[in-house]
Amino acid sequence: MRLSILIFWALVAFTPFQGWAVTPGEIAKVGQQKYESADYLQAIASWQELKDIGFLNGNLDYNIGEAFWRLGKVGEARRYFLKALSLDPRNPAIRDNLLFIEDKLNPKPPDTGIKGLFFRVPWWKLSLNYSEALKVCALTAFILFGYLIWRRLKLRKAKWWITLPLALILLNGVSQLVYRGQWAWVPPRAVIVVPQAKLLKVPAPEALTGNTLSDGAIITVKKRQGDFRLVKSASGKEGWLEAQSIGEI
Amino acid sequence: MRISYPWKIGILLVGLWLWPGIGMAQPSIDVRVDRNTVVMGGTLKLSITIRGGSALTTPEIPELGNFDVVGRSSGNSIEIMNGEMSVTKTWEFVLSPRKAGTFDIGPISTHIEGQTYSSGPLSVQVLPADQGQPYQTFPQPRAQPMPPSFPQGGGGRGRTLPSYPFASPAPQQSRPLTFITAETDKQEAYVGEQILFTFRMYTAVNVQAAQLNLPDFKDFISEELITERKYEVNLEGRRYAINEWRLALFPTQAGRLKTGKSTVTAGVPVSTGQNRFNYQVFRSSPFRQQYVSKTFTAPSITIQVKKLPPAPKAYSGLVGKFSLKSQLSQDQLATGDTVNYKVTLKGRGNIQEATLPPFPETEFFKVYPSKPEVEIKKSLQGISGEKLFDYALVAARPGATQIPALTVYYFDPESSKYIKLDTKAMAMSIRGGGPGEKLVTAGINERKGILAASKVPTGMKPIQPIGSLLFTQRLSGPESLIYWFLILGVPLAWIGVQIWQRGRAHAIATADDRKQSRAFRKAKAGLGRLDLSDGAKALPILTDIIREYLSSRFLVRGGALTPGEVEKLLYEKKAPAEINRRMVYLLEQLDSWKYGGELGKLPSGKNLSQEIIELLKEIEKGL
């Protein structure tokens, strides 16, 4: 009798039942189909749903940015490409799309000469996202300082051709960690996501400064006060904006 | 029937497994009307409720050709059940039939997670106007409490009021101290035409706890223009403080419509002393004032509302005076690029209800409209503003095409005609190219190729495939903690090792210092204790004392120093040559006495001891 009960529950446990929930793969598939059929808003909703589930990667933000670009929302597109870049800084597709947008917003003649040569070096291939920087710093610190401790205990000098490369790698990792981390003392960056954002002198709708920021402009958020944000643009313009007109990266 | 233990566990497990599935609500759409029979000139409310969608879910409503939309609202609510979030969105439309008959509304559908849900159609019977009473469902204006007292005395700026030919009559002669008036700027209007309704309370005395009740305007859509405006006027030699309210009314049906009565209930002062008719004295009277509650009523105003003449097919209900303009962000683009096409409708009237005809799609581009933005300006002259319709057009194939003209009709009450507004058709040129990258090679020189201009992509890359979306690039909390421990812990350990080693070296050096400084004292004490009367016993000890002094003083390991080694040691330590020679001579003498069997030649103990101490002192001095 007990054996038959066990067999019954084993069948129950291993028999595939039809699930009620939609799997993440299906959601991703729906998103792709919506994008291909040019229903960009629904595609964004599907990819956003994957993010809400917990899938955090640059590719999702990249796809959302593509969809916003198709909708003509330059600011939102740039914002999501920058988010994607912070998660996946070595992805050439993200970099190219950002270059493309920047060229549309601020066209300038290409760099030539030594400056052009400097910018042609793919320094971005050394970029790390926050998690990678943390891992690299941890591993390098462990190896470098472990080696130094061992040499010290042996009362011998450390070899420079071992410590120098490790120190450089550690320095790169620490700088990436500082750059990518969302530290409380670092003002966050944001993007203007409305066609024209009018800067205000004080956090009240009527107090205009006469300056405007256009869609896609990158700003830093210096202060928050209710539904308003004190921002500063790259060109030095400063003022208050409504929170709904900016999107934080 | 008793259930055995394994079965109980099994039932419980299956129940827990099924529970989330039972608890989860299925998406649905619900469409209903508040009445299935309506009379011409009346209205009905269409309610659409979508459950289980996302924030971007919207209903697809077919063309309501037999009804005009005269009001709309929407709302959201969020439910959390068994950890699952469900969004419920509702839309309500107030519909006014265009003609009598039986019509279908719907079916109305929506798309949620790849599935289509629909409801309807609903059948509505519209009766001719003479077969029933109209029914209104407009919200009632709230009763507004007035401030406890009105401004008194001089210093205020009187304003000239616009003249209204159709005002309810104010008191004619010897106006009372307190009275109210209600007036409109016109007595005849068309359905949907803006009418200004102004309510004023005149008071020449201080009133208390005034409570205003504006009419319900059941046959109108009302919009508050100003909540309260205060100023003063002189009427028949008496200064009145005025509190004014102004609303814009839009009649919703034809006929003789009444605004309804306006009332104010307030405490007005009653004189308890003399000089009742001398109000100047009354105000500053030392007599105590009493207040009695009184209700003031302004009668209802009748407005003759005329039906609109037969409208063009594309007419959407605009009444007033409007202008239309359009703007295209660029007229030359590549496939895959997006341009913005903006249409702005501006004017005075019921602009909130303005709609544009559907934007025709062509094979050259796809159209994605965004939510229209309305900017309403309210002033004493009424409601005006502008409504912006923004379309994102995505170029689908190359070729020469044009953005078609859009037509909007509005009814001008002044000319009693329908005015047609058109946007201009705009030419557009779409070239091929699409997403991809090619080098910008302006001015490149083969020899200087490496220094040539950097490349700029000319199009967007394609999206990432499905397989690359389902992972996370962020570390969990415990993982981060481990890495932070390594980043901070290992360098700290290295610093700890450094500190420990330095401390140890310092301790050793200090110990050596102590050892060196004690060497002479120890040797002197040893010599003092030595009994040199027995030369055979004293000699080895004497030799040891000297050799121990030398090894402690000069930190030499091992006490068995030969005279040669001592000579070398003193030489290295730069001791004076005379002292070096004497110390070596002494050691050789001691060794010869000790090992050479010449004990008989040993000098007296005291002399020897003093000589050795003198020698050691000179060594100390010399170093």
Q: Between the first and last Cα atoms of chain B, what is the distance in angstroms?
A: 108 Å
Strand order of the largest sheet of chain B: 11-12-14-17-16
Q: Strands of the biggest beta sheet of chain A: in what spatial order?
A: 6-5-4-1-7
How many E strands of chain A?
7
Low-confidence stretches of chain A: none
The quaternary structure here is heterodimer
Q: Quick check: average pLDDT of chain B?
A: 77
Return Rg of chain A in Å.
25 Å
Number of helices of chain B: 7
Low confidence ranges of chain B: 20-24, 133-173, 273-287, 434-454
Q: Give the class of chain A from helix and strand content and strand pairing.
A: alpha+beta
| Overall body shape of chain B | elongated
Record the SSE blueprint.
The complex is a heterodimer of chains A (249) and B (623).
Chain A: H1 2-14, H2 24-36, H3 40-53, H4 58-70, H5 74-87, H6 92-105, H7 113-120, H8 130-153, H9 160-180, E1 189-192, E2 196-200, E3 208-214, E4 218-225, E5 228-233, E6 238-242, E7 246-248
Helix pairs in contact in A: 2-3, 3-4, 4-5, 5-6, 8-9
Chain B: H1 5-23, E1 28-33, E2 37-39, E3 44-53, E4 67-81, E5 84-97, E6 101-105, E7 108-112, E8 115-119, E9 122-127, E10 144-145, E11 166-167, E12 178-184, E13 188-190, E14 195-203, E15 208-213, E16 220-235, E17 238-251, E18 255-258, E19 262-270, H2 279-283, E20 290-298, E21 302-306, E22 320-328, E23 332-334, E24 338-349, E25 365-369, E26 373-379, E27 382-395, E28 399-403, E29 407-412, E30 417-422, E31 426-431, H3 477-529, H4 535-553, H5 563-572, H6 577-595, H7 605-622
Parallel strand pairs in B: 2-9, 13-21, 23-31
Antiparallel strand pairs in B: 1-3, 3-5, 4-5, 6-9, 7-8, 10-15, 11-12, 12-14, 14-17, 15-19, 16-17, 18-21, 19-20, 22-24, 24-27, 25-27, 26-27, 28-31, 29-30
